[in-house]
Specification:
The protein has 287 residues and is mainly alpha-helical. Helices cover 81% and strands 0% of the residues. Helix 8 packs across helix 10.
Length: 287
């Protein structure tokens, strides 16, 4: 052992945090997490069940709530598959091809992340307004209504959730390269066979993460939807808008009951994501 080694060990032991310091940091961090996340979560559940199970059931089963839940599920069932398909397509194009303006389109892909959802809603108003919009009067002549209609809710949700799948898949495709795909093509595989048997197995975890995040955002979107929907009860009111409407009318139990549904879906989403992450290394090792 050299003379410098004890000195280094002494310096490391001196730099190591004392037990009380470590416990203080743990307490501070967990207290902040509890204050910001856990307490509001428990408050939602407490307020939702404050009136008993009967009041809770009434809050989530009245016609307005059922209409909002149905529209929310419809939006998710349309938006998530569409953004999954086109998210993979966009990621594939950006990862595999070089073309003028590629950096510009990479920036465009991140635009829904950077822009305010309310501004995103206003963009659609400017585009689809039946009186002053760019495309609105033409669509109105074809009897296609975007604003204050379910179609507008679907379009703005498509916009705000677009990057999730593409941004999860893109770095994986870039890291993998195209050697395996070229080898499959050399062996006679068609483009579809190459994607299905070579590319998809390699990106499946990233794709699944993207789908989960896209679903969670579609379920909870509020800002953009509130601008284009008109908040028409039993027509264009999603679950998040219904919660705001019920709370504004002092239907506290109903509002928190519906909020608890969204909270439950968010928790299930996180649990599924963590389960997938925990199983991923073992499944990759088996392969």
């Amino acid at each position: 052992m050299t003379a410098s080694q004890p000195a280094r060990e002494t310096a490391l032991s001196t730099a190591a945090p004392l037990p009380w310091g470590r416990y203080a940091l743990i307490t501070l961090g967990l207290s902040f997490l509890a204050l910001v996340v856990l307490f509001p979560l428990f408050n939602i559940l407490y307020q939702a069940f404050q009136g008993g199970l009967g009041a809770y059931w009434q809050g989530i089963s009245n016609p307005e709530a059922l209409s909002a839940i149905s529209l929310t599920l419809l939006v998710v069932l349309i938006v998530v598959p569409v953004n999954t398909i086109f998210g993979v397509l966009v990621a594939w194009v950006l990862a595999r091809y070089q073309f003028p303006g590629k950096l510009f389109f990479l920036g465009i892909l991140d635009l829904p992340f950077a822009i305010s959802p309310v501004v995103a809603g206003m963009m659609h108003v400017i585009l689809y307004s039946p009186t002053k919009g760019i495309l609105g009067p033409w669509l109105e002549s074809l009897h296609i209504r975007i604003l204050f209609a379910p179609l507008g809710v679907i379009l703005v949700t498509l916009f705000v959730t677009l990057p999730f799948v593409a941004r999860e898949v893109l770095p994986v495709l870039q890291e993998l390269g195209d050697e395996e795909e070229q080898a499959a093509a050399t062996l006679g595989a068609s483009p579809w066979e190459t994607f299905w048997y070579v590319t998809l197995p390699n990106i499946r975890w990233a794709l699944l993460y993207g789908v989960i995040l896209c679903t969670a955002r579609a379920l909870g979107e509020f800002g953009a939807v509130s601008v284009v929907s008109g908040k028409l009860i039993n027509q264009t009111e999603t679950l998040t808008l219904h919660i705001e409407q019920a709370y504004g009318e002092y239907q506290t139990v109903a509002a928190f009951a519906c909020a608890s549904l969204l909270t439950l879906l968010a928790v299930v989403t996180l649990v599924v994501q963590e389960l997938i992450k925990s199983k991923q290394p073992s499944l990759e090792a088996e392969e």
